[in-house]
Amino acid sequence: MRLIGRFLRSSVKLSLRLPLRGPQISNMKPFALLCVFLLLCIDRDISGTSHSKPSCRFPPSQWCRSLEIAIACNVQKQCMEVNATRPNQAVPPVSVTLYYESLCPDCRVFIVQQLFPTWTMLQDIMTVTLVPYGNARENPSATSPFICQHGEPECRGNLIEACMIHLTGPSAFQIIYCMESAENVLNAAQPCLQLYAPSVSWSNVDSCLKGDLGRRLMHANAVMTRALHPAHTHVPWVTVNGEYTGDNEDKALSSLFHFVCQLYKGVTPPVCNGAPVRLNRSFC
Prior knowledge:
- The protein is mainly alpha-helical.
- 54% of the residues lie in helices and 8% in strands.
- It is globular and about 60 Å long.
- Residues 12-40 and 42-54 have low confidence and may be disordered.
């Protein structure tokens, strides 16, 4: 293609330089025009193949996190529109706290099907706090400091997720969703950490699991869970804006997305305009 382009350029230059008269001019014009047309097509083809757009290496939830990511993912216009419609920061977000167990099937369903998708779409108007402990009990005198409803693997899962929350900050919820949506929660921990918080090494998490930090984090979760009023009787146990009622629980577990949109006191984002969908609820 480049050789043909060079030939056409030289042909056009030659036709422009030759001192032509009369019928020669009329005969050369179509040829020159054809060369120019083909030259433009070739240049466009070459330029289109030699400058490929950068690939997007980021999940959709991070596309508007910075200008550099938005450019890399070619979503600058969309991110500008999202920022323009973001709610008033003076209005407090809806606060949702989940008390749960890492291996409780009903907790996993709620996290995967409702809590994480709702937070992904409404994170500008809501906050999420995760407290992995649930129906566990502290057992300071024994070799294992905690007894969990679904056995020792769940105690380890709770501990891993408590350490993840402490060490990874804003990426913690994505990591926990990644774990809870996997077939094996415990085996997914390290790959999920590498995917969503690559700057945090697994050795840091392992130190938390084996050291005093992990025990202190789990004790803090135990204290938070025991302080609930009314006391929790099952998990998932959801408080909204720091309060628990049976009516709020029913709304949160059946259609959390619609419930958050209803509770927000400011101008709701356009995504809240859809019809509510109710899901079944169950407990551990």
